[in-house]
Structure formats: C-alpha cells, structure tokens
Amino acid sequence: MAENGIGASVPRTEDHRFLTGTGSYTDDSNLPHQTYAAFVRSTHAHATVALDTSAAAAAPGVVAVLTGTDLAGDQVGSLICGWVVTGKDGEPHKAPPHPALAADTVRHVGDAMAIVVAESARAARDAAELVKVDYTPLPAVVSMRDALAEGAPQIHAEAPGNLCYDWEIGDRAATDEAFGRARHVARLDLVNNRLIPNAMEPRAAIGDYNPATGDYTLRLTSQNPHIHRLVLAAFVQIAPEHKLHVIAPDVGGGFGSKIFIYQEETAVLWAAGKIGRPVKWTADRSESFVADAHGRDHETHVELALDEGGRFLGLRVETRANMGAYLSTFASCVPSYLYGTLLQGQYTTEAIYCEVKAVFTNTTPVDALRGAGRPEATYLIERIVDQAAHDMGIDPAELRRRNFIPADAFPYPTKVALEYDSGNYGLALDRALELADYNGFAARRAESEAKGRLRGIGLSAYIEACGIAPSQVVGSLGAGVGLWESGGIRFNPTGNVLVYTGSHSHGQGHETTFAQLVSDYLGVPFENIEVVHGDTEKTPFGMGTYGSRSLAVGGSALVKAMDKIIAKGRKIAAFSLEASEEDIEFSGGDFKVAGTDRSMNIAEVAFSAYVPHNYPLDELEPGLEETGFYDPANFTFPAGTHVCEVEVDPETGTTEIVHWVAVDDFGNVINPMIVEGQVHGGVAHGVGQALLEGCAYDADGQLVTGSFMDYTMPRADDLPDLTVETTCTPCPHNPLGVKGCGEAGAIAAPAAVMNAITHALGTGAIDMPATPQAVWRALNQ
Amino acid sequence: MSVNVSMNVNGRAVCGEVEDRTLLVEFLRENLRLTGTHVGCDTSQCGACVVHVDGRSVKACTMLAVQAEGAEVTTIEGLAQDGKLHPMQEAFRENHGLQCGFCTPGMVMSALDLVERNPDPSSAEVREWLEGNLCRCTGYHNIVKSILAGASAMRGGS
Known about the structure:
By secondary structure, chain A is an alpha+beta fold. Chain A folds into three domains: 31-138 and 201-252 and 258-291, Aldehyde Oxidoreductase, domain 3 (Alpha-Beta Complex); 295-469 and 634-780, 2-Layer Sandwich (Aldehyde Oxidoreductase, domain 4), CATH 3.30.365; 484-630, Aldehyde oxidase/xanthine dehydrogenase, molybdopterin binding domain (Aldehyde Oxidoreductase, domain 4), CATH 3.30.365. In chain A, the strands form seven sheets. In chain A, strands 3-5-1-12-9-10-11 form a seven-stranded mixed sheet, with helices on both faces. In chain A, a hairpin with a 5-residue loop joins strand 13 (298-306) and strand 14. The radius of gyration of chain A is 27 Å and the shape is globular. The model of chain A has no long low-confidence stretch (mean pLDDT 97). Chain B is α+β, with helices and mostly antiparallel strands. Chain B folds into two domains: 2-78, Beta-grasp domain (Ubiquitin-like (UB roll), Roll), CATH 3.10.20; 87-154, DNA polymerase, domain 1 (Orthogonal Bundle). Chain B is 32% helix and 17% strand. Chain B has helices at residues 24-31, 87-94, 104-117, 123-129, 141-154; strands at 2-9, 12-19, 50-53, 56-59, 72-74. A five-stranded mixed sheet of chain B has the order 2-1-5-3-4, sandwiched between helices. The mean pLDDT of chain B is 97.
C-alpha cells in the first residue's frame, strides 16, 4: 500500500484551511455593491394574507421590498418535486404549486411571503419588521391523523383529502397467505420522530446579475450545484442554464438539507436580477428551524409473521408519512422508493407488503435527511424483530442469525424490487457480539441491578441502498433525472493534475479521498493532485452528493476518466518510445515497453502531450485531459450490525449509553480514518434521534422546538467513545468495489438504542425520543 | 448610534466605527474580515463563534463589540505562527477532529481554554467542557481524541 494511496488513513488536505479559519463558506464572501436580504415569514400555520409594504419600503437603507405578487407578475415558476411517485390508483402524486414567495395563502409557519433588500443586514431585518401582514387565519391541520380525517381542512385544492399519494409495494396476497400460516405474529405501532437537520452552517445564498452579459451567478450552500442550476433554469426559469453559474464553496454540513431548491435562494437570485445588484441572505438559526426541510416523521403499524422455528414468513407494513405543507424537491421518493424497497432488511422474509400514505399538513416540508427512508425501514424491521424475539423467548441475536440471507446466496433478489449485490451478515453480527462482549452481558446487568440501575443491550442489523442510482431503474420509478456521476482528469504540462468531480464535499473529505484514488491509480504524487468541486463552470455536469454516492458513483466516474487517460498515455508513450501500443504496460505511473528498460513517467507523457512538436497529428491529438461519466449497474448495499448497551436510572428515567460497537461492511475502503469518522457522525445523528431530538408542533401548527434551547441536539457528553470496525465484501459491480458509508450510523443507531432501552425496561411501549420523561413514563404507567 | 471601538486582535491594534448594537462576532467578521469565527445559531448554544477575550473563551455572539473595548482578543486566525499550526490545531488534523469545519474554530478555541485551566483533562472532563459547542458531523469521538492529544502535545508529550 502506497503511503498516500488506497487504504491509507491520510490526514485531510482540506483541514489546513478549516483549522486556520481560512475556509470559504458562503457567508464569508461579499461582492462589490452588495445588498442584504431578510424574509418576511408567516407566523400562522394556515392563513390568507394581504401585505402592506409601504412602511418597509420607506425605511432607511431599503432598496426594494418584493412580494409573492411581484414574483407571480414576473412569471417566476413554482418550486418542483423532481420525482413523480405513482399511487395504487395509477395516478401520479399530487404536487401542488410551491411559490418562492407565497402571494395570498400561507401554509406553514415560516412560509416566506416577501423579501426585503437593504444596504445592510440590520436595515433589512429592521424593515422586514415593518411589513404589515393582514392574516385571515384558516383552520390548520398539524397531525397526519387529523389531515386524513373526514372533513379535514384542505391545504391544497389540488390534493383532496390532503393526500399526496397512496402507494404500495410487495405482494399483498402472498403476504396474507404467509400470515395465514404463521405460528406467531408480532405487532408494533411505531412513530419515527420528525427531525430538524441542523447542519451547523445555516443556509445562505448570494445572487448576482450582470446586466452587461445577462449572466446570473448564485453562490450558495448546496450539496448539488448542478441540480440547483438545472431546476432554477429549466423549471423556475430565472435564467437559462448557460446564463446561470452556481457555486457551492465550502459548505458546513448538509445531511440532505442542502440538496433541495428552496424559496430563499430562488427569491435572492430573482431579486438580484430585478435590482441589478448582488443580494446576500444568510439564515439565522431560527429561520433554519422553520425553513430547512425536516426529516423522517412516519407513523407505522408493522406485523411480522413467524413459523414455529422463528423463521420470518411475512412482513406487513402500513405507514403514514408526513410531507409537510408542500412537496419538497425529492420528498416523494423518500417514504416510497427509499423506504419500502428496504423492507427485506438482512433477512429471507418470504413475503412482504407495504402501503404508504403520504400526507400534507400545515408544517415545514419534510424531505431527505441522512439516510432518508432507509433509517425508517431499518427502525421498524429491527424493532419488530426484537419484539418477536421477546414474544417467542428467542435470543435476539439468534433470531436474526436464523433469518439472515446466507453469505452464499448473493446476488439476492428481494421481495421488494431490489437485488442485493454482496454481503456477509453473520460475519458482522458475530464480530459485533464479540466486541460487545454479548456473552458477558448478564454479569454486567447484575452489577447494574446492584446499583439500582436497569441495563439493556440492543442490536441493529441494518441494510441500506447506496450509490444512488442506476438511471434506468430510477427513471422507471418516476425520477426526473438520471443519477450517474461525472469525473474529469486534467493533466497540466508540468505533470500535476486537476481532478474534477460532479459530487460535492461538505465534510466528507473528497479532496483527500479522491486524491488518494487518483494518486494510487495513476501513480501521481498525492501532493501534485488538486480536487475541484462545487462550481458549475469548472466541473462537468454532475448530480452532487447524497445517498452515500460520491465514491461509489463519482469515484467510479473518475476511474473511467483515468482509464481513458491511460489509454491515451499508452499511445503517446508508444510514439515517443518508438514501440507498438500493444507493448506498452502501465504501472506505478510509468509507461514501459514490455521486456525492456525503456519507460516514460506519466508526467513526461503529459509534457509531451502539451508540447507535441513531432506528433503525427493525424493519429494523435495533443493534450491530456479526459472526462468520464458513470451510471451504476445497481445500488450498493452496505450493511452491518451495531450493538448499543445502556444503563437506565429508573428514578429519573435517564439513559446513559455505556458502550457502542459498530461493525459495518462498506466494501473496499480508501481512507479508513475518514470512514470511521463518517460512522461516528452517523451514530451520533441516530442517537440524537433515539434519545434527544423531538420536533414538536402545537395544535395550531406553531413549532414549539424552534431553537437550540428547545430542540435537543446531541452534545459531547451524550455520547460514549465508539468502537468501530469494518468487514469487507467488495461491491461486485463498480470498479472500486466500494459501497458508501455516510449514512450507515444514522440508519443503524436508532433501533440499536431503542432495542437496548426496551430490553432494559422490559417493555416495548416506548417511542423515540426516549427522553427521561418518556422512559420514566414507560416504567411507571 | 455609531461608536468607535478599539482593541487588540491577534496581536494587532484595530479600531472601527460600528453601530452600538454590533456584536463582537459581527465586528470580527464584517469589519476585520476575520471570517474564521462562525455564527451557527442565535441563542448562544452552538459555540461556533468562540474566541478568546483577555485569555478566556467567550462566545463572540454573546457580547457587544463595545464590551471588548481595550481587550486582547484572539481568534482562530491568530493561532498558527509562521505558517506552523498550533499543537491543538495539529492534533485536530492528525486525529480527524473535523469534517465540514464549521464548528472547528470554536472547538479549537474552547479546547485551548480548557487546557489552560486543566492541562491534563480526562476524556469525561473534555466531554463535559464541550457542553457549549455543537458539532453535527463528527459524533465528538475524534474531537475528544484530538483535544486529549493536543493537551498532551502542549504539555510537551509526544
């Protein structure tokens, strides 16, 4: 293994700028002649509104006050949902209009109604307070149950009964038949709590318009600048794609929340064109709470049918999924194709049927959040498996082992439309149990009991579909885009290399991992490689980063580009070394004539490519630069087992996580240090969901948990040190054998925590977040 | 109302005319263009804005610029000397104590105040000290590891 190559824990290239305070986040930039924006947002969950902007427009420093009426007058298009889910009835989902500024009706607290542009951020905020809004409140529906009730207030005329879609997957008849054969049926009602993403960097956008050329530039916090450009050009129609330059510079965390095309960046870009000056907006955290798309928010009834030996015969799932007030960019696919398709879990369950009602409510829109659908699937599977183990008196580890898809059964076609590519679930479980000292648990429990504490241990054997996604598959399921990725390799004449990726790093460390890959593959020194991302005028069109796809799809695109580089390098070397192309071998950065000591380093080849004084130009093009596009043959399927051990104080209901073991199969790993870090972060996200993070609305649709003082984020002392290991079954269908690791922790963790708590308490009647109050109630009621 | 403020920031005398309601973090970011100090919330919870004022860690979103009149202020930009990272910065780099980097300046500045008060903290003491610093990326595991390593390096350990 090379020092900086594949498999090495190379410290990150990007860290120096972050550690010295010289990163470049969106809010760190300022443009000449810049103005500042503040939004006027609804304080009601549902109302018709009339705005009087005269006082605000006359306030000191105000440049413009623009409303939803102005926006409609300029024929700025609606925000869109990019994935059309078809319901049981064969009809497409309901995607009502979502204007960047609401003109006459607001549908959730925080819905933007006007943008105030001023000479300073303070002046903009002060003036936004002066916009008079005459609200005529309409009845609001906050819970999904209320929204679906007969006679419920209607949020959109286009969505009768507040139903976005009623969707199904699997085989209902076969599942009914399986339940008919069951010896035991385990049942649970589960809430998958709504989460607020809270990337540490609030969203921000700077719009700019150049009247000389008609060009727009949007600098913003985006995980996918090309998707922003595509949607703002093709659908919202502010500027055509070739006249819109989108830059996503350093981005301070995303977790899904910075995928989407939101009201604010749309309004900022439009306003910049209207006033002919740059317009900058940076969210304050209070805005993030009401305006960033939330995650999860499912209510599910699940049943698992087992035979007398504990084998899983059938799984039946009925879910209501909250979409919030509007259908966000990818909201529709999260509780359908990223959820129902994962209900096979790691098991050989013989029949599966799932139906999902997606529901509009007067709450902030809900969309993908770290894991997106897959945490919800794993949570219900792993909770119901534990419930069944409890009901039947079988050890939870043993019950899982009995039902695992065997290691020799891959590729494994699931009952819910996927084909698992590779895996060895028993191996991960066994190693996790060993690291967790599962066999020693009884003694530790006895020790806890002696101190008056309850102790529990919980497993979560999760699976996820990553490397999103084969375009043909997602296209057939309603996606409006292809989900390939691009990669470009440009050699400079002096032999150093620029690497272009259409994926985007907002913490994942692409600048290091991709440089390791290129260094290893092309034999170029690590320090001679620069990775470029996040700029539509620099990189080829790319789909961005989410769904743990960057390496599996984006890295594979780079491999395609590098193969082209090597092929061309071989031609150049053959010419230069006066050998035949077939005799040129490439390894370790050198093109060699087989069986001789004649060779050329790739840097010399690059120089020759740019100084082609003697080239036979009819056979050989100058230059050494190639682009690859990679469309995956399948999803990848990272999987593994996490084990959580907790101690609960029955007096206070406080849960302490005393031990955490994660054993994950991510296929091949390029930088183990970065991979472990991704697991740590994902686990913390999942522990946050399980123990702390509960988004709450009151009956009128006011967000009660609207700040860090009300919404509990995981802090350092909520978490233990984490034991993290990997197993490896390489992905068989991408050239790197990699699977993806960014979401695994968040997918695995909630069920592990809750299974540990239910084990400690001896009752499964508890939902997330298992706050001290919830735990105390479960024990005492 | 505008007022004049002057202070020492990273060893340099600076002054500026600001609105009286200007926060220290705004003065640092907007007037001095020291954008390493970040703003991650509006309720003094997240700690992305931690700087040192007269040697103590302070959330720069929680004090007015005028309150720092005459003070010695150190920001993340003031730590590395002659292009060499401070041992605490180096420890974060070596131990992968950061991912997106947004909380990082506050984490490092906060950690330095901890080590000033407690040169050899335990893992539990580090976790407790970080009460006022939120990170969404790392799960804190490697931040704790970084701070322990940084403290060790500052004590002259390896």
